[in-house]
Design brief:
Pfam families: HTH_3 (PF01381). By secondary structure, the chain is an alpha+beta fold. It has 2 domains: 4-69, 434 Repressor (Amino-terminal Domain) (Orthogonal Bundle); 96-190, Umud Fragment, subunit A. It has helices at 4-14, 19-26, 30-38, 46-56, 60-64, and strands at residues 74-76, 109-113, 127-132, 140-146, 149-157, 163-166, 174-175, 180-190. An 8-stranded mixed sheet has the order 1-2-3-8-4-5-6-7, with no helix packed on it. Strand 6 and strand 7 form a beta hairpin. The protein is elongated, with a radius of gyration of 18 Å.
């Protein structure tokens, strides 16, 4: 844990947070953040580490071992930036068998709703593999920036080729508006089912 301080600082800078903003998210003072980053405080309790990982929108492994272990799900929040932009997250490789209907080349990231966040089509405990893209490739579920917030919408093309967006409880799809932007395609989804 000798390199924990520099990792906290690196992840904070990648998340574009100053010490005061990170401190507010974690529930500590900005002086405490300074002490953590400098190494003056070497022991950080588990609850604070979890809160720190959530505030930095990164897996706990990124704090503890620099993320060299297997990729952990990233917390998906409605606020920008996208979780893979705010951390040094590693992508995952999906076996072809998991996505037979949609071949996808490029990065994929494993995401799950952050605690307290709710999304259409993605419940607490669900996991989704998302592939960052701003291009419509095929109908399906997409992570969309809508009016400055990240949401999940079913997207397809209308009769004249325009993109149509539909929420889980929407009776009808809405056409593209200038405040919408495709962010990622959901290429695989695993539902949480209690045993």
């Amino acid at each position: 844990m000798d390199t924990l301080g520099p990792r906290i600082k690196q992840l904070r800078l990648e998340a574009k947070l100053n010490k005061a903003a990170l401190a507010r998210r974690v529930g500590v003072s900005d002086v405490t953040i300074s002490y953590w980053e400098s190494g003056a405080i070497k022991q950080i309790g588990h609850e604070r580490l979890v809160a720190l990982a959530q505030a930095l929108n990164c897996p706990l492994s990124a704090l503890l071992d620099g993320g060299t272990s297997r990729p952990s799900p990233l917390y998906l929040r409605h606020e920008l930036p996208e979780p893979w932009q705010a951390s040094n997250s590693k992508g995952i490789e999906l076996p072809m068998e998991l996505t037979p209907a949609q071949r996808w080349d490029g990065d994929c990231h494993l995401v799950t709703p952050a605690p307290g966040e709710t999304f259409d089509f993605l419940c607490q405990g669900d996991l989704a593999a998302v592939a960052p893209t701003d291009i419509f490739r095929q109908p399906g579920l997409y992570l969309v920036e809508e009016a400055g917030r990240l949401v999940i919408r079913r997207v397809h093309q209308g009769p004249t080729g325009e993109l149509m967006f539909q929420g889980q409880n929407d009776a009808e799809a809405r056409p593209y508006t200038p405040d919408c932007r495709l962010v990622a395609k959901l290429v695989a989804l695993w539902r949480h089912e209690p045993l």
